């Protein structure tokens, strides 16, 4: 996967510009640093930087639409997205805010083994903390993190939506950017079916688990099998899919 072609040099310069903006803006770089220090994300600083750069890209281009995240966990990536986006652009965050649902037969053995570990109650959290899926007040913790980071939910148009994706993710307006961090085949497929038809021109999807879980990769490959001509598939720290 790649974005090669005659326009690669201008695109590279533009990408370097956005990455420079990420790490020279205290409002963004400070959030990236703090979410790592406070064990609020599994993502590396480089992956968080890529995420922020993708959000800055849609902001700089004026791509219309919502920003979405499906799969919030402790809220670290959501905090970075909120710091990078315009405060007036709506940002909807979807999660059960509980333990992750089980995989299905469409997922691989890797997912089965991982879920068995989670269900056993023996999964370790980030940096020795309690695994986020075992916390009973996860929604409150994410809300508190936004306030603690100075990113008021109300003032930054951030909306936390609790429930299963098939029950809550009903998109009826343009989407500029979506971060899909939902692991298993069924969850990823539900998100793609709901979001992709509304993705704006030059809008982007970041697929967190494409290189990690077989079920996620299968869902993405199947969904885009007949749509590849309309998109660029860019391998970074995560898979970025951008509508042409």
List the main descriptive attributes of the protein structure presented here.
244 residues, alpha/beta, Rossmann fold, seven-stranded mixed sheet
Description:
- The protein is α/β, with parallel strands linked by helices and 244 residues long.
- The protein has a single domain, classed as Rossmann fold (3-Layer(aba) Sandwich), CATH 3.40.50.150.
- It has 9 helices and 7 strands; from the N terminus they run H-H-H-E-H-E-H-H-E-H-E-H-E-H-E-E.
- It has helices at 8-24, 26-37, 45-61, 76-84, 109-119, 138-148, 165-168, 185-195, 214-223; strands at residues 66-70, 91-95, 158-162, 175-180, 199-207, 231-235, 239-243.
- The protein has a 7-stranded mixed β-sheet with strand order 3-2-1-4-5-7-6, with helices on both faces.
- The radius of gyration is 17 Å and the shape is globular.
- The two termini are 15 Å apart.
- The model is unreliable at 1-6 (pLDDT under 50).
- What does the main sheet amount to? 7 strands, mixed
CATH architecture: 3-Layer(aba) Sandwich
β-strand percent reads 15-25%
Identify the CATH homologous superfamily.
Answer: Vaccinia Virus protein VP39
* Poorly predicted tracts of residues: 1-6
Query: In which range does the helix fraction lie?
Result: 40-55%
């Amino acid at each position: 996967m790649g974005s090669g072609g005659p326009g690669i040099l201008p695109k590279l310069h533009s990408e370097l510009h956005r990455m420079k903006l990420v790490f020279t803006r205290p409002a963004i770089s400070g959030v990236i640093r703090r979410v790592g220090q406070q064990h609020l994300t599994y993502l590396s600083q480089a992956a968080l930087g890529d995420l922020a750069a993708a959000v800055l890209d849609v902001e700089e281009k004026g791509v219309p639409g919502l920003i979405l995240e499906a799969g919030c966990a402790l809220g670290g990536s959501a905090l970075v997205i909120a710091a990078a986006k315009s405060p007036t652009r709506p940002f909807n965050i979807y999660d059960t805010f509980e333990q992750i649902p089980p995989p299905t037969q469409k997922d691989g053995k890797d997912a089965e083994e991982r879920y068995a570990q989670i269900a056993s109650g023996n999964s370790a959290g980030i940096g020795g903390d309690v695994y986020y899926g075992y916390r009973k007040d996860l929604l409150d913790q994410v809300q508190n993190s936004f306030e603690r980071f100075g990113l008021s939910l109300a003032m930054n148009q951030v909306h936390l939506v609790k429930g299963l994706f098939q029950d809550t993710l009903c998109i009826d307006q343009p989407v500029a950017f979506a971060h899909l961090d939902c692991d298993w085949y069924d969850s990823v497929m539900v998100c793609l079916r709901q979001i992709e038809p509304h993705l704006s021109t030059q809008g982007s999807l970041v697929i967190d688990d494409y290189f990690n879980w077989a079920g996620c990769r299968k869902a993405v490959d199947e969904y885009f099998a007949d749509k590849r001509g309309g998109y660029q598939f860019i391998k970074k720290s995560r898979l970025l899919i951008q509508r042409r």
